[in-house]
Every structure is written in structure tokens, then in C-alpha cells.
Amino acid sequence: MFLKVAMGSLLSRKGSAAMTLMAISVAVFVLLGIEQIRQQARDSFASTVSGVDLIVGAKTGSMNLLLYSVFRIGSPTDNISWQAYRDIAESDDVAWAIPISLGDSHEGYRVVGTAQAFFDHFSFGKKRRLTFSEGTAFEGTFDAVLGSEVASALGYSVGREIILAHGLASTSFTKHGNQPFIVVGVLAPTGTPVDQTIHVRLEGIEAMHAGGTMIPVGAFSSQSNSESESESESESESESEFTEPESITAFMLGLKSRMSTFSLQRQINEFAGEPLMAILPGVALSELWQMMSMFENVLRLISALVLLAAVLGMGAVLLASIRERRQEIHLLRMMGASPLYLFCLVEMEALILCSLGMGIGGVGLYAALLIVGDAVFSRFGLYLDTTLFTPEAALMLVMVLLATLAAAAAPSIKMYTAAKDAT
User: Fold this and answer.
1) Neighbours of 162 (CB within 10 A)
2) What's the pTM?
3) Which one of 242, 284, 336, 395 has the minimum C-beta count within 10 Å?
4) Mean pLDDT, all residues of the chain
5) How distant, in Å, are the alpha carbons of 12, 156, 315, 382 from that of 374?
6) Residue 81's pLDDT is what?
């Protein structure tokens, strides 16, 4: 009976009730949506590189090693000898190893020298493997594979010839024009630094640097046919002569058993041949995310402000309606309703609006995630799970209910006092 009276009262004020319901629905939609994005952004950041047990580089800070090996930010303090890489990669505990060589670029995008193992074992997100939107992995010494963002921004496709530049600046005055690379594949979007990277073979990096002296920008375009032929011959000689590099920047390891992670990490950190450092990428990524905690705090603040605006708006609508409900108050008092009954009636109306708003907002968010989930993942690499009712979301909905009751307290008290005055 009590619920029926509350519903009837809301239906008698369809316009204001509908606007209030819409405001709460939007607030819940934004609140849960921001929480979903926050959680998935944290999870996606933590899984920028997945399935890698250790990242090894020259002695430096763990953050610096993580930044230049995974995010392509900054520069290494030193390189690692190829022999040290081979010694560790051939350890009984190691299942696979991915070498990484940095130092060159193309139109401002980093070039990474690596091996076939990169495409076979590197994964991201929830152990998603790299896939190709066009072409295949490199096979020849001077083959190149582009990240999706590189191909899109520069308008490159399979078959395109590219010239790599020395250094990492967006504008370089020296290019390795004597050794052009051919694009043989374009990776599908991942939402990770892989999208902004050009991948070539380690042998190609070595041959490119040893195949001749770097020439100024534009000089290679004015060479004669005979010079081009001689370059082609030197390219062939380089391709056959240089098969492995002298040093690399870093490498990633996948172990046969997780139980050996810490023991191998200690062995690498105490490596006698040269100063090396091994880090656990998951731990380093978590530490880096904690340094960026302001991002989460800003999202939480936005959610709180949206919720505050919605519940205050609902309270204002209910408070303004008290003056219009004097006849309803008199009628209910004549039927024997106590002031406490009327107080609870307003609170019940607020709870009904809030519950309906949470339902509409939740359903709307679920539908939106189904519609735009794939597009968000392909564009930003952010996997938006449609599972909304997590413990964090449940806690937020409880807070919404409590905030609704608090916001409805003022109109409820006004209704209570109006009922006492009507006696």
C-alpha cells in the first residue's frame, strides 16, 4: 500500500519525475562508466606486456629499463653484449627470449631491431598475441613490419620502401639511405607502444650500420643508376656477411617455470660477465601506475561531482514539489497518515527514482559497451568488459542510495513539518 501511494504520487508529477529520473540515469551511467574505464585502464596498463617473466637490460633503474624497453621512452645507459644475451637465453630455465635493439627511427617513430621470436611469443592485454592486418612477419634481412599507428599516420602499406634515420628525433639530418627497408607487414592495433613502432630484423640493423657511411638527407635521391647498382651489390654482401649483432639494448625472457623467476633474476643481477639488471614487468608496471595515481583520483573526483549534481537536483525537485502537494498532504492527513508516514513517503519516492535510475543507467551502459567495445579496443587498446556488477560497482551503488536518502532528507523534513502544520 505504501509503495502504491508513492508510485501514484510520482505519476501525478510525471514531468518533474521524468526529468529527475533522467538526471539520475545519466549520473549512474557516467559513474559506472568512469569506474569501468578506470579499472580497465589500470588492467590494460598493467598488461601492456603480457606473458613476459623478466626484462633484462644494462644496470639502471627499474623504471628506466621498463620505459625504454616497453614504452620506447628514454634511452638506455648502456648496451648488452650479444654473448651475454646468448649465455642467458640458452639457460635451462629459459623457454624463449626476445632481443631488442633501439637507436634508430623513421619520421619520428622508433625502430626496434628484434627477431621472429617477437611475433611468436610477445603478447599484451589478457595474453593476446600479435596479429597482422596486412602482410606477414619479416623474413629477409631488410624487411620491416609496421605498427598500426605508424602505417595509418604515414599512409604506408605493404611494398613501401622506407629509409631509416640515425637517432630518435622527429627530424633527422642523417639517414641510412644506402640500406632501404621494404614494408612486408602491418600489425593489427593493440593500443600499446607496438602500434607506434617499426620492427626490423637485428641482422638488418647490423647490416644497415655496417653497409656504408650515413649520408645527408636528400642525398640518396640524386644518386646515379650506377651508384644504386653498387649499393645493391653492397646490400647483398652486407646481408650475407652480417648475421648477428655485436650488442643489443635489452631482451625479454619467458621461463619454463614461474618457480625459477626469482632465482634467475638473482643470477642475472649477479652476472659476472657484465653489469646486468633483470626486472619483473608486472611489478614494475604496478609501481609506475602508482606514480600515476593522480589519474585515478581525477576520475573519482569527476564521478563524485556528477553524482552530487544529480542527487542535489533530485532533492531540489522534491523540495520544490512540497508547495504543490499541500492538498495531497491534507488529504493524506484526513485519511489518518501521520507526519512520520509522510516523511517516509518522500524518502520512498526518492528511493524509487534512484532505483529506476540505476536500472536504466546500468542497462544503458551495458548496451553502450556492447556497441563500442570493439571500436574502443581497436583504437585505444582498452578492453571494456561488460561485467558491470563488480564489488567496486556494488559499493558505488550503495553510496548512490545513501546519497539519495541524504539529499531527500530536506524535502522529507519539509513534508513532515507541513504535515504537522496541517493538523
Assistant:
1) 20
2) 0.69
3) 336
4) 80
5) 43, 24, 38, 9
6) 93
